[in-house]
Amino acid sequence: MNFQIVEEAALKIKTMEVRGAARIARFAAETLKKFAEMVESNFDENMKKAAEILLNTRPTAVSLYNAINYVMNYEGDNDREKKESAIARAEEFIKWVETAHEKIGEIGARRIKDGSVVMTHCNSSAALSVIKTAYKMGKVVEVFATESRPRMQGHLTVKELSEAGIPATLIVDSAVRYFIEDVDYVVVGADTITANGALINKIGTSQIALAAKEARVPFMVAAETYKFSPKTVFGELVVIEERDASEVAPPEILNLNGVKVRNPAFDATPRDYIDVIITEIGAIPPEMAYLVIKERLGYAVFGTEELKISARHFD
Ligand code: RI2
Q1: Model confidence over 238-275: pLDDT tens digits?
Q2: What is the sign, positive or negative, of the torsion defined by CA atoms of 294, 297, 299, 305?
Q3: Is 151 domain-assigned?
Q4: Best substitution site from 102, 120, 191, 243 to test ligand 1's pocket, by max atoms within 8 Å of Cβ?
Q5: Measured distance CA(243)–CA(262) in Å, rounded
Q6: 108: Cβ below 6 Å to ligand 1?
Q7: pLDDT of residue 296
Q8: Which atom of ligand 1 is nearest to the CA of 121?
């Protein structure tokens, strides 16, 4: 069996050519669908290998894990039935991704008051859905977007805001506290929400949450339910991806004697700093994360390696 399309997709995720927790999840489901269509024999074995290749790319966003598990939860008595089921499940997952954004936009925008200034971090499609919807309702007057070093995803955000006609101000990450008094809401996305309601998101998010709490600025998280982590119910800790130091500093710095350069891509924001999590099924307090995992995702465990996501995904 030729795994080329899977290996190519895995490389795109690893190098962040395809990035963003929702996008990588959707891309993994699309890739598994294409691969399933090509498999002619030994369906289980080949799909398992493809799933492993895709999983072995970026460790932090649980959306990737949930997408893969969702597709791999296919059923059937023979290869033909299994293939049909896997393809159908991949399509269901893709639809889940597509429909969730719109609902999150609607629900999140309702919480924003007229004339608001919003701050966001990195480049989150879910957070931007809230901001764009609120803007269309005439509620947002300006958006502060952080650069989000080292990959500068803030540049993507201001481009997107500009295309949508939304006044945007780009700031360096360290200017967050300087500007926080001018802000009415912080709206960020999520890579993972843990069972205890903590948010794992782009490095720097927790500092923004700290500044927001100090300034009494509401901190809103936009997260589809497939960003909630069933693994954390079983005590597993979220692995924080540490990317290559060359993303942070040039060779003359990397080669200095006695100097280390570290590049964690994500950090954890405790639930006490989060006012609300906007999901496609409603605005929930972070304390309800466990219930979302239990009721929405379902978790029949076959060893933590093989969690089954028996989701009632979208209704
Ligand atoms: P959406 C991104 O991770 C950012 O941390 C962003 O906040 C999060 O995914 C969610 O993005 P990266 O892939 O799924 O840039 O809301 O490391 O688009």
Answers
A1: 999 999 999 999 999 999 999 999 999 999 999 999 99
A2: negative
A3: yes
A4: 191
A5: 8
A6: no
A7: 84
A8: 7
